[in-house]
Amino acid sequence: MVHPHHRGLGLGRWLKAAMLERILEHRPEVAFINTHNADSNQPMVDINVELGFRPVLMLNVWQGDLAKARQGLGGTS
């Protein structure tokens, strides 16, 4: 994630492109590249789409307070 003071300058796009160029230069046999990011990170989603990536897997990860989860199960915290 880019620090808020430095957003909008193209740093994420530059870094992603530089990494892809490095892979292509040092591993020319590579046919597929997978990348991951949160669907809520729209700037990186946009960069990935601009670079030709497409979604192939959606994954939801949940986190929560253990005490509240125990209460939901009828246990004690």
Q: Can you tell me about this structure?
A:
The longest helix is centred in the N-terminal third of the chain and has 16 residues, at 11-26. The protein has helices spanning 11-26, 42-50, 66-72. It is mainly alpha-helical. The chain has one domain (4-72). The chain contains three helices and no strands. The model has no long low-confidence stretch (mean pLDDT 89). The protein starts with 10 loop residues before the first helix and ends in a 5-residue tail after the last helix. 1% of the residues are buried. It is elongated, with a radius of gyration of 19 Å. Helices cover 42% and strands 0% of the residues.
Measured as a percent range, the helix fraction is 40-55%
Gap between N and C termini: 35 Å
Secondary-structure element series? HHH
Mean of residue pLDDT values? 89
How many β-strands, per DSSP? Answer: 0
How many independent structural domains? 1
- Describe the main β-sheet briefly: none
Class based on secondary structure composition and strand pairing: mainly alpha
**What is the overall shape?**
elongated
Distinct helical segment count: 3
Query: What portion of residues belong to β-strands?
Result: under 5%
Low-confidence stretches: none
List the quaternary state of the chains: single chain
Please state the CA-atom Rg, rounded to the nearest Å. 19 Å
